[in-house]
Predict the 3D structure of the following.
Amino acid sequence: MNKIIFLLTFLIFGFCGLAVAQMNAPLSLPAAKAPAKPKPPTEIDSDSADFDLNAHQAIYRNHVVVTDPKVRLTCEWMLVDLPQGGEHLNHVVAATNVVVDFTDAKGETNHVTAAQAVYDYKVVGVVTNETVTFTGNPIVEMPTMTIYSEPLVWDRGANKYHFTEPKMIPKDTGTNGPAQKLF
Amino acid sequence: MKWNAATLCLAAGAAILFFAGVSDRAQSLPVGHATDFTSNQYFEPPNERLVKMRLSGAEALPLPGGLLDIRQLRVETFALDGKTQMVVSAPQCNYSPFDGVANSAGHMELQSGDGKIHVQGEGFLWRQTGSSLTISNHVRTLIDMPGAML
């Protein structure tokens, strides 16, 4: 019986001690969510440009460089449909020596080259299609392999490539391990 | 046919009203040296009372060939609902009122009415009739909207 009383007393004091210790501990509230950083604007630099303000179109010429937080594109000619009223950009054509560099969701660098790239954004019902279609000998270089595909479609919504009769050449990564899965 | 005094007064009054109306509708750019001027261009009928384009400047100096040297140029274009579509500004340009062409070798800036597109460059040619703008050098565009290309 004494043993039981001792055990109960020990448990009660032990619990109280824990409770007091918790009360004395600094109050730790869940960290307030930092406000989401606004996305920096996309920057387009070029030697020259023509703006058709009736057609709401811009054509950039020579040394065109598009700098986005995650993507960099260079080409020699680019047409941009300028939406009115702050809508979504929906049609961009980049041509001549198109080079796109970006880091994918896995953190791997992707280097795409092609003669032409067409960006399209469409909303049909509840489905959003956002693609970049590369044509003119498109090549995508990843850390593990190089892929040739005509055309090469980059599904921006799903963040995946769609290949047509692709030719894949694995790179020697020096591990002699099995080839890594693409996606 | 003889014109009596009353008829002449009426004719003069009508002429004044007519020219006042014309100058209000058409480009009314300064002919000589002018400061802080504004010139409005209106939409075609039936929206002839709505301003389509407003050209303003801090100073206009006449140049040979009917050109104007405009300082602190500001061109605003408007939609039919009155919303600003675009604002072009330049510290200096030469403007030809007859063919509606402005050009400069200097700096210029363009901003969309909603402020989401901002363009700047060096050297430009603005054709009023086709609403076209060519920027010759160092063009930099900032687009602040989703889906900006990639």
